[in-house]
């Protein structure tokens, strides 16, 4: 994903102590450096947001613009899907056949090169685990051979990947982590499974999840957040047009797709009709993970920041209330961090502790 926009400096912060930075090095040293920046964000010591990245927007975009993580995966392969198409997955090999498998789901318009995805895969390699990153359809640069894309409520590809991994090595522990849109997909799938979730699933973590898609869509139409929307919708619109060119039988109005400027407009004219929903409202109602979290039975971490510019904090309050009724859920909502941000340290030595914090929590579930 390519980001190019100006971010306002809208509030102040107090300085934080120096932290250990991530720097681009060969695989061995990189793994050691990533290990060294792990620490719990809300316990001992707490997460200390970078004083030089005030407000919710700067930490949100900093990692996308400035962070560089060398690739940790060893290959990208295509796995056939039951609908006659295929999904791409990036793989990291384990040091032993029975080592845990970390399954990753990226965010909206993420790719195999998303910094947080590579960060997670480096941490998996450092532990001797295997890792599989599910690259959502079209996010590998390919237009599907079937008339569909990916979306926040589409769980069949994740279900297919999990079934395959379980069948390949029954009994091997599987850990899951989903980021942003991937977090919503993960929580929805876990809720759909309920008590039928495979025994191999030992733990899951959903990071910066847009629990309520309708509320998030409205919230993103305010202030600077509209810049994110225009960025994403421009990319989604191009994919939708390419899909229409390959599958002209889709009952979608091309001119309305061209005119879409907001998430709601795009989901109303493309995501909904192309994927069996009546429109945006129906899509949001049936796909929002907030409606599924009470049915989750696998140990699951809900990790978000209350200043996430993609979601109103009132939604996190609702999620916290729901989580109190489900002992499988662990809530960890930090006061600051932005959307998939959580930057610490100094400008010359920033650190990105989110992946380490989440990985350690998952490791404790083994």
Description of the structure:
- The protein has 366 residues and is of the alpha/beta class.
- Helices cover 37% and strands 15% of the residues.
Task: Break the fold down into its secondary structure elements and pairings.
Layout: H1 27-36, H2 57-66, E1 75-80, E2 86-92, E3 101-105, H3 115-126, E4 130-135, H4 156-168, E5 174-179, H5 181-193, E6 201-207, H6 213-219, H7 225-246, H8 254-259, H9 263-274, H10 280-287, E7 300-305, H11 313-323, E8 329-334, E9 344-346, E10 349-351, H12 354-363
Helix pairs in contact: 1-3, 9-10
Which terms summarize this structure?
single chain; Rossmann fold; eight-stranded mixed β-sheet; two-stranded antiparallel ribbon; 37% helix; disordered N terminus
